[in-house]
Amino acid sequence: xxxxxxxxxxxxxxxxxxxxxxxxxxxxxxxxxxxxxxxxxxxxxxxxxxxxxxxxxxxxxxxxxxxxxxxxxxxxxxxxxxxxxxxxxxxxxxxxxxxxxxxxxxxxxxxxxxxxxxxxxxxxxxxxxxxxxxxxxxxxxxxxxxxxxxxxxxxxxxxxxxxxxxxxxxxxxxxxxxxxxxxxxxxxxxxxxxxxxxxxxxxxxxxxxxxxx
Length: 213
Fold this sequence. Notes:
It is a single chain. By secondary structure, the chain is of the alpha/beta class. The protein is 26% helix and 26% strand. It has seven helices and 13 strands. A hairpin with a 5-residue loop joins strand 5 (71-72) and strand 6. The longest helix has 13 residues, at 182-194. It starts with a helix and ends with a strand.
């Protein structure tokens, strides 16, 4: 079985996950992997639905196993914990934070107030949904006007996605998810070839890591 935590070099402390096309799936996949022998807190700095199979609390002391920490808000979602992320980092080996929203779109451009990355994060992983590559920006991008302004393109080509990622410079590494058809794999490889940071191509749904650059 693929080891995403090892492949993405998840280190003890706070890891932030941003982008679109699989952030929440990655968050819980990493929590599941890392909880084998380590303590893990999952949280958000924005808004997320509570996990179905992880206990959720408002506040915590030292954690054993895996725990979700957050504050209930509208629509049944959780928002940022009451405890600072600096404090949470002292209470578990790993703190995994979903630090972005994408309105269920596979691609994302960021407004001035986004993403909400904890100051003590030691790594930022940007998830890119391969299902959106090559399609009209208006259909597959959250904040399409910002994406078009940064890329100069109305199609989310590999070159356009790479341009946005490079200009925003918010991440340390990229996970291209949804690479589950030959066409998506080819598009993901085109995008990966344009990036200068570490890139992993995978299908979280299948639990497969295809390759890394």
